[in-house]
Design a protein that fits this description.
alpha/beta; Spore Coat Polysaccharide Biosynthesis Protein SpsA, Chain A; two-stranded antiparallel ribbon
Length: 249
């Protein structure tokens, strides 16, 4: 397997975080699950999967202390997730695995399978799970579904930047992120034809990836995981209850 670095996003959105408060921590990444912080669980998983270098993006002082305790590198947050990932990619280089500190259930085997299934000619790949797979693993979970012609899909907070060309996707992400409150501007970037195909559910998952990749000037791939719990992160208090229940079984 090709050696890779790992980047963990642990930034703050500003203001009080209801999930952190619910979990009794000053930051979501510091919530404890079975005696470990969520950040420690994620850093441990990427290392066990073979990451040769691990960096965490956070400007929170207590998270920075935890990063130091874990022996990872601390990187400052940029103005938004896309710019933070770009800065991290430039610092660490590629191949680069990107995930989040709230990926509480992350397992090394999920990462290993993701990298093994990544098409060899892809510049960037994204891990997704089919709705049936997710609901079989975690009945009753409420996820955000991407509803496409070939089914409902959930992202799994795992991204692989195979080479430096993949930074083109980050540039597109940054443009869309900047216009997230102005849908007409987003339509201009993505193209009205693509949005209409999505709204009418005539856009398939791999077709969407190919079209977005073409816009970014990269070869983008989609990897479907057989592990339904890979889509579970801690975005809301109910998610924390779920991961606590799952890990206590």
């Amino acid at each position: 397997m090709t050696a890779f670095q790992a980047l963990v996003l642990a930034g703050s959105r500003g203001g009080d975080d209801p999930v952190a408060a619910y979990g009794g921590a000053s930051h979501k990444a510091l919530i404890r699950l079975q005696g470990e912080t969520l950040l420690a669980r994620v850093v441990g998983a990427v290392r066990a999967a073979g990451a040769t270098r691990v960096a965490v993006i956070s400007s929170h002082p207590e998270v920075r202390a935890e990063i130091a305790r874990l022996g990872a590198e601390a990187l400052d947050e940029a103005a938004g997730p896309s710019l933070s990932v770009r800065a991290g990619a430039l610092r660490l280089g590629t191949p680069l695995l990107v995930t989040t500190a709230d990926h509480a259930l992350l397992e090394p085997a999920w990462i290993t399978r993701f990298l093994a299934d990544t098409p060899p000619d892809a510049d960037v790949t994204v891990l997704v799970a089919a709705r049936a797979t997710v609901e079989a693993a975690a009945p009753g979970t409420k996820r955000t579904w991407l509803k496409l012609a070939d089914g409902d899909w959930s992202g799994c907070n795992l991204f692989y930047l195979a080479n430096d060309r993949a930074l083109g996707v980050i540039d597109l992400w940054r443009r869309v992120e900047a216009e997230r409150k102005r849908p007409w501007k987003m339509a201009q970037i993505l193209g009205p034809g693509m949005l209409l195909r999505y709204l009418s559910r005539r856009l398939g998952l791999r077709d969407a990836a190919a079209r977005l990749g073409a816009l970014a000037g990269v070869r983008a791939g989609i990897v479907e995981t057989p592990f339904g719990l890979a889509s579970v992160d801690v975005d809301k208090p109910a998610d924390l209850d779920l991961v606590r229940e799952l890990t206590s079984r």
